[in-house]
Amino acid sequence: MELTESYTLPVPQWRTWEALNDTTILQASIPGCDAIEADGENAYAVSLSVSVGPVKARFKGRLELTGINAPHAYTIVFEGQGGAAGFGKGSAQVTLEPEDTEATKLTYTAHAQIGGKLAQIGSRLVDGAARKIAGEFFKRFSAQVTGEVVDGEAALAAGDNADDADEADDDEVEKSRVEGEEEAGESAHTGKGSKSWKAWISKF
Fold first, then answer.
1. Do residues 82 and 116 lie in contact, with contact meaning Cβ atoms separated by under 8 Å?
2. Whole-prediction pTM value?
3. CA dihedral in degrees (4, 6, 12, 14; nearest 10)?
4. What angle, 0 to 180 degrees and rounded to 10, lies between the N-to-C axes of helices 123-146 and 13-20?
5. What is the pLDDT along the chain (204 residues), one digit of tens a residue?
6. Which of 88, 90, 157, 198 has the CA that lies 20 to 30 A from 48?
7. Which CATH architecture has domain 2-148?
8. Counting runs of H as helices and runs of E as strands, what totals does the chain give?
9. Domain ranges, ordered by start, for the chain
């Protein structure tokens, strides 16, 4: 399988390079990534959950960065095992080019081999899933480096705010109801809103 894509990121080249080497940003950007930790010099242990068509599995693997030419390029060599789901291994050449002082063009070409159930579901489905995962990665990555909120997070935040507003409205309704009952009880007890019992007795 071979996959080539280019993306323009709205941040300077050095900022893009630093983010590509930041495990916290990478973990937040890689779809299904459970953990990414340093595993030697320029190497990382990775754990992630992947769904490709009917095949769903948790992969554990290793990434190693080679041919490092900061802040212009490096090659990622990767391999992972997903049990009965199969395995994947290969490499990806990543290059960064400044488009201007505030934007960077990232291009990568990935070559991969897969085996097991993944290899049995068809190259078209695998390629489509790989492109979808890559697209989601760069959407999240761009949001991370620019400090923006991705659509899903924005929707979640909006939902939380709506829930808070609903709870506040419910509290106000309940407060009004309780106050109304208290006022009614006080009126019944003191005679507020009606003639006092002394005035009623004075008629006789």
1. yes
2. 0.69
3. 0
4. 120
5. 889 999 999 999 999 999 999 999 999 999 999 999 999 999 999 999 988 888 888 999 999 999 999 999 999 999 999 998 999 999 999 999 999 889 999 999 999 999 998 888 888 888 888 899 999 999 999 999 988 754 444 433 444 444 444 444 444 434 444 454 454 444 444 444 434 333 433 444
6. 157
7. 2-Layer Sandwich (3.30)
8. 6, 7
9. 2-148, 150-187
Coil, strand or helix: which one is 96? strand
Q: Tell me, what DSSP letter sits at residue 180?
A: H
Alpha carbon of residue 162 to chain centroid: 20
For residues 149 and 28, what is the distance between their CA atoms, to the nearest angstrom?
12
Query: Can you give the length of the chain in residues?
Result: 204
Q: Give the tokens for residue 178.
A: 């309780």
